[in-house]
Write a structure and sequence with these properties.
The mean pLDDT is 94. The chain is globular. The chain is built from 4 helices and 7 strands. By secondary structure, the protein is α+β, with helices and mostly antiparallel strands. Strand 4 (69-77), helix 3 (86-100) and strand 5 (105-110) form a beta-alpha-beta unit. 29% of the residues lie in helices and 39% in strands. Bound molecules: coenzyme A. The site of coenzyme A (COA) has 20 residues, from strand 4, helix 3 and helix 4. Coenzyme A binds at residues 4, 28-29, 75-77, 82-88, 110, 114, 116-117, 119-120, 123.
């Protein structure tokens, strides 16, 4: 475990990080992103950021910013490092990045079954603003996506 009060490195994700990212992604989600999705996001200049501790990736995120809106597309903390404030810290960093790029509102989508993520977002000032029906694959058919938003300014 790392002490989350310590200074963590924050840097852009590159192709050479994708072995480590995929190793985390596969353990963090029942329906993980593929390596190609990350690769495309890097190639197409999405903002792909990661936190590192002693050269080991412990959290990462992908955001897109268009005009004055940002979207958090992926936000992941290494499972062994969860529940010690890293998610909160990464969201704060993402919001700062979005603001610097001119975003006034931040949107994200989350599964209703992902209670820990929803709690984190609510505690961080996000509110539910919509529902995309049957959006995600799930064990029994499909699962809705809750759309959450936060005003950044
Ligand atoms: C959702 C996710 C990003 C949250 O990250 P996290 O690092 O576990 O979140 P945090 O530690 O910041 O917050 C979680 C809890 O830890 C608590 N916490 C925060 N700082 C803390 C600290 N310094 N010490 C101990 N606990 C702390 C928080 O209060 C929070 O508890 P609460 O929800 O009861 O208030 C993480 O669980 C994850 O990667 N999940 C799998 C991928 C995923 O589902 N991503 C979201 C897709 S929408």
């Amino acid at each position: 475990m790392c002490n989350t009060n310590e200074l963590l490195t924050l840097r852009p994700m590159t192709e050479s990080d994708l072995n480590q990212i995929m190793e985390i992604e596969l353990r963090a989600y029942p329906y993980p992103w593929t390596r190609n999705i990350f690769s495309d996001c890097i190639k197409h200049n999405y903002h792909c950021l990661l936190h590192e501790h002693n050269d080991t990736i412990i959290a990462y995120a992908v955001i897109s910013v268009a005009v004055d809106e940002m979207q958090i597309l992926n936000l992941t903390v290494e499972p062994k490092q969860q529940n010690q404030g890293l998610g909160k810290r990464l969201i704060t960093t993402l919001e700062m990045t979005g603001r610097e790029l001119g975003a006034k509102t931040c949107f994200l989508e989350v599964r209703p079954s992902n209670k820990s993520a929803i709690r984190l977002y609510q505690h961080h000032g996000f509110n539910e603003v919509g529902l995309r029906k049957n959006y995600y694959p799930a064990k029994k058919g499909r699962e809705h996506a809750i759309v959450m938003a936060k005003v950044l300014l």
